[in-house]
Amino acid sequence: MSERVLVSQLQSREDGPVSVSGWVETVRDQKKVQFVILRDETGAVQLVNPATRPDPEGGEQDAGALALTTLISEMSTGTFLTVTGDLKHDERVKLGGVEIKIANLEVAAAALPETPIAADSGLDKRMDWRFLDLRQRRNNLIFRVQTTLEHAMRSYWIERDYIEIHSPKLMASASESNAELFEVPYFEDKTAYLAQSPQFFKQMAQSAGFGKIFEIGDVYRADPSFTSRHATEFTSIDAEISWIDSHEDVAAMQEELLRTAIQAVADKHGAEIKELFGLDVVVPAVPFPRIPLAEAREIVTARGYEIPRTDGDLDPEGERQISAHVLETYGHEFVFITDYHPEIRAFYHMRDPETGLTKSYDLLYKGVEITTGAQREHRVDVLEVQAREKGLDPEHLAFYFDFFRYGAPPHGGFGMGLARVLMLLLGESSIREVTYLFRGPTRLAP
Amino acid sequence: MSERVLVSQLQSREDGPVSVSGWVETVRDQKKVQFVILRDETGAVQLVNPATRPDPEGGEQDAGALALTTLISEMSTGTFLTVTGDLKHDERVKLGGVEIKIANLEVAAAALPETPIAADSGLDKRMDWRFLDLRQRRNNLIFRVQTTLEHAMRSYWIERDYIEIHSPKLMASASESNAELFEVPYFEDKTAYLAQSPQFFKQMAQSAGFGKIFEIGDVYRADPSFTSRHATEFTSIDAEISWIDSHEDVAAMQEELLRTAIQAVADKHGAEIKELFGLDVVVPAVPFPRIPLAEAREIVTARGYEIPRTDGDLDPEGERQISAHVLETYGHEFVFITDYHPEIRAFYHMRDPETGLTKSYDLLYKGVEITTGAQREHRVDVLEVQAREKGLDPEHLAFYFDFFRYGAPPHGGFGMGLARVLMLLLGESSIREVTYLFRGPTRLAP
User: Fold this and answer.
1) CA-to-CA separations, A436 to A35, A126, B122, in angstroms, rounded
2) How many independent structural domains does chain A possess?
């Protein structure tokens, strides 16, 4: 393993013997010379072999050279192999200005000759063969961007003494609503439910005196919808902090977090994103614009779009409209929509005693909601009233109310969908494209 | 929020007005003076109030002072509050050499007067009231250690260009064995299964050309056992790397990873761990000792312990014995046990053609298994034979075999239980103590 050289290291390496490992992207099998484009996780390089074809006259030939030529001729795209050979810098080689003359070629695992998908296959077909689809440079980049984005967020939090938690996803009752809940038969004829969010348990950390916490983990929604933004399992980015004055403290943390994380992506992958996705990563300025929901609705209406929803919330087109307005007016891709009515918010959102509206926000990015954030109601008597107002069964929530009976600090937080952020950051059309293995109502494999 | 001062910052702060927030750990309500110990996520500080008691003679008194005294007298342990007052350095104060004279006290949420658990309550009782249990300094430290450990591991990987993945936990078939599998009724009368490990999907990343990947995420085992080391849901630390020569390359990565992560814990929390857990964090030297299983069995037998298992593997006492031997002989807390027979290993472990044994290891830490690592079989024809040998249904594994039909690199990796590492690192007796909210056959709440 120690001898392997990554393709990205070849250009800065001197001419001479070298060993590379990767898979076959293309083979050009010409009569006198064979070219193989080999790709690894860092790039692609041209391998070259002067072909030795069987002499029709039956003259004496190098058996090894004949065998190598045949091996390359018959080699399928996707075959994984290790090649040792002679590295040579040559300006005429378009691919990185280097090539390797093959001395030895060892196949690790040969691919079947027919590749079931092509780069332009439909999304569903590509998802059937996701492991092949992910070999594309664009797709590989998506997950390197994901890695950088997450690490930058975790580093931001850890530098500020946040504690990382892993809350359980098997629960005795619903975490958000009784709809869209996956049930799991459990021991002793009990039923467990898959967590729809870490909401209750990240609040528990506040009563536990943890102060500031974060979690990046999977959550589950038995959501039958087929939109480009919904999945039955997705990675949720969550944070919760104590001793806030309002949801504004949460928003201020989140915008700084996103600025830092997107800056890290721009620094590390900006050029490659430009090349492969054709867009510039815009690092957002802070503070992000804030618009109260009522005002946002007026702006959208003034733009000529009549919001069909009657509950006072924005619909997806309304979200696109208000984001377009913000981009035109403030040159900003993000906007916090604030001051939601309690009717369209979770029971645990704290309400402003003056306005009666919740101390909460949605965060839109390029026209799509990526977050709900709020100050939580930590006064258990108020919390119980609000739960009853929503028609929730206090008995099912007894364990949650307990979290606040033995003291609790004022606190708040947000949950953010990782795939949505990635989709929007990279200008993709669906979270399916940026999820390692998407799960939806009709998609459970591979 | 900006005005809040953390308790840990008080000592280095000049005397004068200050505001702190936290919860009441104790109240000493003396006739002439009241003391409150307030704790926040960073430490504890003494608050002091000269008591103003009602004048039995009915003389004129400061109503505010009277009210404050009464408030403190009636205050329950656990109540969360914000206090502003006058910080004063005073060597005579044992707790940090500072105290705050209360000027204003604002209760955020009062605690019920009877705290249901004490620090010395039984484990099960403490788990019922985990949010109170976690207020203990030791327990808070556990999760700060967890945070540091994980971040050090992720940083190690990211500095080496690993990609972080989030593999789905809803699967169409078992990931490890058909036993201990949670079933989830899914859409269209389908059944999903909760992933027992990310095994298949982290291998998929190898066929996808990702090169090196890691994942820290929850996995599920419908395991009816009640040992100190088992849970129905736990956080698994997984890595998988391409182009290895053998499992030795995986072991070399894992030992370096652990050395780095434990070093980070020792640096950041060593003194506090010593204080609260009474032990020294030992940063392991690399390489860790390696002992083939057959030799390990001989050593254990020579120590006078007869292993009852007949399948050739070590049992828990055998693991403790060989670890004791390694500690005595090499002064090392870790040991890789290698060369397991295929009968006691998963079908996907690669076998050494010379010995017939698997190219795999278990890693023991202080006498407990924390990891299985292996080179995987990437040649699909061999893999299918090995699966059939184990009596597995090739049809259920068809999607997995596909990962290797279109080319695959030699690869391997490991899975490691986060809670086991934490338990052993801190000398705790059960993973229940180091899991945020434990899940077991009879434990699904809170």
Assistant:
1) 32, 12, 43
2) 2
